[in-house]
Design goal:
With about 160 residues, the protein is α/β, with parallel strands linked by helices. The chain contains 5 helices and 5 strands; from the N terminus they run αβββααβαβα. The radius of gyration is 20 Å and the shape is elongated.
Amino acid sequence: MNHDNIVNLIVEEIYKKLNNNEVTNKAKAVLLWEDNKAKFDMLNNEFDILHFDKDLRDCEILILSKLCMRGLCNLALGNSTSDEERFILKMLMKGKKVYILDEGIEYKRYKETAPKALYNKYLAYEEELKKFGVEIIKDISFITSQNKDTVGKVEIKKD
């Protein structure tokens, strides 16, 4: 093979990769525990929406559509037992915005049946996450351009 053919093949491969990945200058928004990416289409104008992958190293915002009781407890204690929990903690440590959809927080389903002390324990875990900068949101429309200037910046409170 001659030099020109090799260069052409390399250029074609790079072009294919660029077209397949649709390189954008948008900030990355990573979804955790969500199968329906279409629910988040309204964010496409401002963010490049990605599903979590263990090879991801960074993003501007992180959106958790679900959070089980074990995950809530682990995160509130600064502990991680999965790749997803480690990623969440790293993003918090980097000062990135982390949002949790209120409807996906598991313990809230048991408000009527759980022992009050146990329910309050999980409520305290949720409050702990809020102290870390996590925002509990009712719906994704909260994440809009008016919040874009605060993406990636978390106010650090000194007690």
